[in-house]
Amino acid sequence: MPSLLVTHADTLVTMDDADQRWEDAGLYVVDNVIQQVGPTADLPEQADQQIDGRNLLVMPGLVNTHHHFYQTLTRNVPAAQNSNLFNWLRTLYPIWADMTPAAIRVSTQIALLELLMSGCTTASDHTYIWPNGATLDDQIEAALPIGVRFHAARGSMSVGEAQGGLPPDRVVEDEDAILHDSRRLIEQYHDPERFAMLRIVLAPCSPFSVSPDLMRQSLEMARAYGVHSHTHLAETMDEVIYCQATFGHSPLELAEELGWMGEDVWHAHMVHPTADEVVRLGRSRTGVAHCPSSNMRLASGIAPLLSLLAAGARVGLGVDGSSSNDSSHLLAEARQALLLQRVLGGPAAITAPAVLRLATRGGAEVLGRDDIGYLAPGMAADFIGYRLDTLAFAGAAVHDPLTALVFCQPPQVSLSVINGRVRVQDGQLVDIDLRPVIERHNTIARALVRGELV
After folding, report:
1. Lower Cβ count inside 10 Å, N or C end of the chain?
2. What is the reported pLDDT for 12?
């Protein structure tokens, strides 16, 4: 089995239960599993592949719990720059309706490569619109060669405008077809084993785009197969008003009625729960993907992150869609999470190590993973390294290199290892020529927004 040795890292942060940190340290990996972590002097001297970690801070890979990869195609579209969520969606739905399988594939590549360069090693995506023959298979085909652990959500919309929903009728699907395809995808792709690189998630989009029946049946199927379930919930006050008018419940009350609570469920956003609902989320150990940049960009509100954590909810970070964030930089999301909570709670409301813990262990917990999120023997060999001898960190990393990642300009990684495989080295992608991917993506994005994509 191949071995990998990283030595002489300036700082190594494990994020383990004891929060162990070392200087002049590294890791020894055999195949895809960490065998040793600690000071360089205690590690083996030889391995099949060796990496000098000088000037690096090494830490666990970041975990992204919510995204919409396809939205990289509609970043920064002028018509949607100054809208709230519902108007933003009404503007972009007709554009997304013209996407092709090729558009799904190239947007998946762009989103994952941007995440990878930001330090992300595991990502969940929530694509809920499948026009013109596109399927989740297209995403999987594009994602696997990049080498990021992928939780691929089979999203869906089934209630169009004619039935009182928000999306146009031409972008919704028949519910029987959704459930049939969901079953197929689980049986064909889902890997429940430890160190899995690909897992399937069932993810009806939101209370304003699917029926309660589909929510209920999707959850039943997911639990029968042992896969996790995901949706948007309580993102905006418009959604709260819609749910009260349509169902006679708040978004969270509706989720409770449909069984969408527990350790195999996580919700994106959760900006507008009541104080009592926060308690119930924590009691049930339901997961939450906190997406601060998107919530700020669309003026959706500020999620009660500290209350959710205090209540016991599982919380991770998500960059959310690239049309509502315009970025897929997960480390930047950690910085936003810290700054936003300090606006609410003061300068000591949350610390930089705490938000980095959300970006690593928190995300792993939200996705139901016990094999990633911290560095220790027996854990997956998913780790990253940031250079400390850079202009952005000058005068900062010499004092506290870990917190510099959050307080200073968010950098790109210098090193990324996923499942024991080097994916970024010396700040460069390994085995991937980025330029033609960007060119193809931009060609498709331009044609899509102009209505010229065929």
Report:
1. C
2. 98
| 257-296 per-position pLDDT tens digit | 999 999 999 999 999 999 999 999 999 999 999 999 999 9
**Residue 454: pLDDT over 90:** no
pLDDT digits (tens, 9 = 90+) for 425-434: 999 999 999 9
Residue in the structure block whose two tokens are 């190594």:
12
pLDDT (average), residues 202-217: 96
Alpha-carbon distance of 268 to 317, in angstroms, equals: 9
Q: What pLDDT is stored for residue 435 in this prediction?
A: 97
**Percentage, residues of the chain above pLDDT 70:** 100
pLDDT of res. 453: 87
What are the extents of the domains in the chain? 3-61+373-429, 62-366
Per CATH, which fold does 62-366 belong to? TIM Barrel (3.20.20)
Entry pTM? 0.98
Burial of 347 (0-12, 13-18, 19+ CB in 10 A): exposed
Nearest 5 degrees, angle CA 263-CA 266-CA 268?
165
Beta bridge partners of 315: 288
Instruction: Give strand pairing partners of 317.
Output: 64, 290
Q: What are the tens digits of pLDDT across the range 170-181?
A: 999 999 999 999
